[in-house]
Amino acid sequence: MEYFKKILRFAKPYRKYGFLNIFFNILYALFSALSFAALIPMLDVLFKPEKKILVEPAYEGIGELKDYLQDYINYRVNAYSGDDEMKGLVLVIGLVLILFLLKNFFNYLAMYFITFLRNGVLKDIRNKMYAKIVDLPISYYSEKRKGDVIARITSDVLEIQHSFLSILELIVREPLTILFTIVIMFGISTKLTLFVFIFIPIAGMIISRIGKSLKKKSDRVQREQGEFLSIVEETLGGLRVIKAFNSESRFYKTFSNSTNRFFHFSNKLLIRQNLASPTGEFLGILVIGVLLWFGGKMVLIDKTLDASSFIAYMGLAYNILTPAKAISKASFGVKKGNSAAERVLEILETDNPIVEKKDAVSKSTFDQGIEIKNVSFKYEDEYVLKNFNLKVPKGKTVALVGQSGSGKSTIANLMTRFYDVNEGDIAIDGTDIRDFSKKSLRSLMGLVTQDSILFNDTVKNNIGLGKDNATEEEIIAAAKIANAHDFISELPQGYNTNIGDSGNKLSGGQKQRLSIARAVLKNPPIMILDEATSALDTESERLVQDALEKMMQNRTSIVIAHRLSTIQNADTIVVLQKGEIVEQGSHAQLLAKDGVYNKLVTMQSF
After folding, report:
1. Into how many domains does the chain fold?
2. Are 447 and 519 in contact (CB under 8 A)?
3. 573 is in which domain, residue-wise?
């Protein structure tokens, strides 16, 4: 129930619907019990003419309430029908129909209002999960499979609706229906009702035993669902490679192994779950059978119960079965929903290590420069950067070069606070970037990554991502600087053309130029280019490099590059090797040193 309580906090904004649901459920439960109790005087009027009451009964206190109501209905029916018994029959039928109509009408209203609560909670959990998914650091997703995260926000949240939130419909209605029914059953026959209660604990114990292993089995099903969704996500992302290497059968085998495990786990879960309903129904019918025997004995032999009361009592006993079965089914739902809620709450309650201070500074200008002081950083066990120091004055371009794994892209990740440093600090205008709000820090920076990350949207919306309400003229101007305007103009709908999933309708060079245009439009004072020209052909690279150099004249730039031809005009070139600076200077100075940089240039010349 711990997870159930945590999920219920999402119901607070919708509590008015909850109260309305409770109100109409009370009325439903009351009329559900009354509709059967009303049968007693009706049956007496129809089948026991000798018991006709022709004088209005007098109310003699709460202790005699049951007899008073029974006699009063009898009197009213007789007063209305007179000697016409069919007239009395029509009235009896009409009264029963009205009671059942009211019962079902209140049930509808209760269900109507709970719908807003259930779907509202579902919406808020999904929104909260999405906000958390976006907020969590990139490091979180190096440990989690994306398919598993997708499974949690889709099927697990849906499971919560089917299990936990369905209990909200039962939590008031079914117990109250049972309570009101039992009160009336006690009113009819205390002895018979006490006899019924001997069997209820026995039935409860049997049903409870079936449900004990449901949570464990449900958890395995949901984990496996996350597994095969991850395989689907990886397959779609790497479909070209799978086809190129004829690996379809290998991936199919991995997927089918996962779905086979899902098949077996689901079978075990559903076999247990499906056992609940027939078991509950059989136990209910068993109780009814015993009641028929014991009650029949009271009517026929002991003469301690009249036939009309016994018929109504049997209706009331059956009236308990439906809510009792619903409650037993709901208990299975809780066990099944527990594992889904646990997986959802695991994400919602994950602490973000990239913490923003309560009194975080909001910075909108860049005045002096960037300083990286004694920074050491590791993703796992080994340090990627060791005691790294670098100053980037305002308006200057600093290039970072070195072999793969030397720590160049890590500096871009630390600058943007995708990760936090383990030791040392990074300062902008003398203030540690951890003192800034994440939003204001990232608004100072434009980022063009090695991989062109585009979205399934129009060209216009992809370029305008970093600037809300950007005009068409601004978007076109940014595209021209990135040498993208010409190819965009040739697209079927120009800037309104949808570029497909991850921009797959475009070539690699075209995608990269859109990424550059996006950064240009944002127009930040600090530009971080992580292999920004790596996907361009020679002609496009020259044109874009020329545009980037013009753009970088008035802003501070950190350029990460493998292709050394793109950074020859940088003010400072920093050569990294295994997370440490081995050389630093201008292009000419580093060539003159005849060291590591010169060796890299020589290798790329061939």
Report:
1. 2
2. yes
3. 369-605
Distance between CA atoms of 215 and 213, rounded to whole angstroms?
6
- Label residues 226-243 b or e (16+ Cβ within 10 Å = b): bbbbbbebbbeeeeeebe
Do 329 and 379 fall into the same domain?
no
CATH of the domain at 128: 1.20.1560.10
Instruction: Decide if 515 contacts 481 (C-beta within 8 A).
Output: no
340 plus 231 within the same structural domain? yes
What value, to the nearest 5°, has the Cα angle with vertex 273 and ends 272 and 279?
A: 85
Contact 513, 482 (CB under 8 A): yes
By the 10 Å C-beta count (0-12 exposed, 13-18 middle, 19+ buried), 553 is classed as exposed
Q: Assess if residue 62 is contained within a domain.
A: no
pLDDT tens for 202-211 read: 666 665 565 5
Contact 458, 495 (CB under 8 A): yes
Cβ neighbours for 49, distance < 8 A, ≥ 6 positions apart: 85
Residue 45's alpha-carbon distances to 34, 54, 67, 82, 309, in angstroms, are 17, 11, 14, 12, 12
- Structure-token pair, residue 327: 């409650």
For 299, which DSSP code?
I
Whether residue 559 contacts residue 551, with contact meaning beta carbons closer than 8 Å, is answered with no
Strands of 580-585's sheet in order across: 445-448, 526-530, 556-560, 397-402, 572-577, 580-585
289 with 381, same domain? Answer: no
**The whole model's pTM is what?**
0.73
pLDDT band at 86 (very low <50, low <70, confident <90, very high): low
- Would you say residue 60 has pLDDT above 80? no
Angle at 516 between CA 512 and CA 522, to 5 degrees: 150
**Which of 348, 377, 397 is the last residue before a domain boundary?**
348
For the chain, the C-alpha Rg in angstroms (whole number) is 37
Mean pLDDT of 91-95: 76
* 541 has a pLDDT exceeding 80: no
